[in-house]
Amino acid sequence: MPKPNLTLQQKLIKRAFTEIGAGDIDYPIQHRPRIFADIIQLLFHIPSLGLTRGRFQKGEPVVLVIKGAIPVFYKGHPYKTPIKIWVPLGYPRDSPKVRVVVEDQAIMSIKLPHPYVDAGAGGLVNVPYMQAWIEAHSERTLTGLVINMCECFSVDPPVRQRVPPQPPAPVPTFPIPQLPQEQEMQERHEEERQEQVMQERERQEEGKRCKGKRGRGWACGLL
């Protein structure tokens, strides 16, 4: 587990105190100490998580959002699963809302199907720890939720890397066999061409000899 960045943690604590303690987000006053304690505990337990705010869906109230990557160990290899946790105004009685978030879908995708993540619902998470939350909310915490997610995702990771399409393999080309008649015709044409070349060379040589003999007064072709 990576060591927490104390400077960053102090900033997160200050922001959480401002958002919760000062009432910037309308959490019930009686629940603010519990919400503040659960969020700070989680941020210290998983240093790769941060704090922001936002709406779970359009039209819903603004709440605190914990976002980042949680550690997953699949078959002995470490991986990171990007998540967002919305802390509802009714927390701790109401269960947090969690999504696995894939920013670049050209590189990564949510496994389909998956027992704990609904890709069709935008990566909505429903692990065993979230079941019967209302009945056991006094014992439920954000840290316990994330630990259960890490355990479930280590058995079956919800995110996988897309395999880029491979270019088609080149089609091998083979020489087209010729029929015997076509091969014989090509050979005959080649012989005729060679013969014409030889005859042309002989005419050129004869022309040179005739030119030399005329210079000495001889008639070409009489010797």
UniProtKB/TrEMBL annotation:
What GO terms in the biological process aspect are recorded for it?
Answer: endosome to lysosome transport; protein transport
> Where is the sequence biased in composition, kind Pro residues?
164-178
Q: Which SUPFAM superfamilies match?
A: UBC-like
Which GO MF terms are attached to this record? ubiquitin binding
Positions of the UEV domain: 16-163
Domain of life, per UniProt, equals Eukaryota
Q: List compositional bias (Basic and acidic residues) regions by residue number.
A: 185-209
Q: Single GO cellular component annotation?
A: ESCRT I complex
Read off the InterPro entries from this record: ESCRT-I_UEV_domain (IPR052070), UBQ-conjugating_enzyme/RWD (IPR016135), UEV_N (IPR008883)
Record-linked Pfam families: UEV
Which Gene3D superfamilies does this one have? Answer: Ubiquitin Conjugating Enzyme
Instruction: Give the span(s) annotated as Disordered.
Output: 161-223
Give the protein name, as stated in the record. UEV domain-containing protein
Q: Which organism is it from?
A: Prunus dulcis (Almond)
Classification from the root reads:
Eukaryota, Viridiplantae, Streptophyta, Embryophyta, Tracheophyta
